[in-house]
Amino acid sequence: MSALNLEQRHEVAGGHLSWRDCAHAGWIRRELIATELGRDRLRSWAAAAPVANPGELRFSPCGDVNEALVVSVLERLPPPVLHHVVEHCALLALGRDVAGCACNAMELEGRILIVVTQGSRTDVDTSTTVAHEAAHAWLHQSLVPWQVGGVGDRQARLAAAANFADQFGMQKQWAQHRAAIEERKHRASDLCERQACALVRAWGFRGAGAYHHRRKRQ
Questions:
Q1: What is the mean predicted confidence (pLDDT) over 114-142?
Q2: Are residues 165 and 58 in the same domain?
Q3: What are phi and psi of 213, to 5 degrees?
């Protein structure tokens, strides 16, 4: 892990946080600002330091991933990441059969859609999957389904997206995107995956979503 000293924390936060706040912000690490987007989001959050409630995340359970487990993961995220996920993401919990992904939710109020599933069927790996996709949402641009993240059976993931479209009345948007989605890559670049895994480990999570080589084998 790559810790930052007090002066570095103050600098990367754009000078918006007090020195006292910086002293208590051990979560400001190099992994959090591994991308320019991550740095920009940290500065924007620090300018106002808004507080988010994990229970306010837009959550739609459709499988055996329960909301309490998701909330327990969110409670472990640094304040700016938690705020970003609650304010700009929606979570669709489909069960534990095809891992996870983070992608643009098309017309769903401009939110990033985090799809959470996990093949290992353990709470540890499911929790790490939530954290991993939250890391992608923080560090990287949201892309159309299924260009970012996502491992496992492709047809199952496409079916999951279709079900989501049906649930939220997005059938027209899904039909418009389906042809293009078919041709897009299913995984993020190697660099993006490594950045997300490193950030997840910095948050203290362990499991498949924290280690790039383990995700590649799934």
A1: 79
A2: yes
A3: -65, -30
* Cα separation, 71 vs 45, whole angstroms: 21
Give the domain range for residue 161: 50-217
Mean pLDDT for all residues in the chain = 78
| Entry pTM | 0.75
In this prediction, residue 151 carries a pLDDT of 41
Last residue of a domain, one of 49, 64, 88: 49
Task: Return the residue matching tokens 């280690």.
Answer: 211
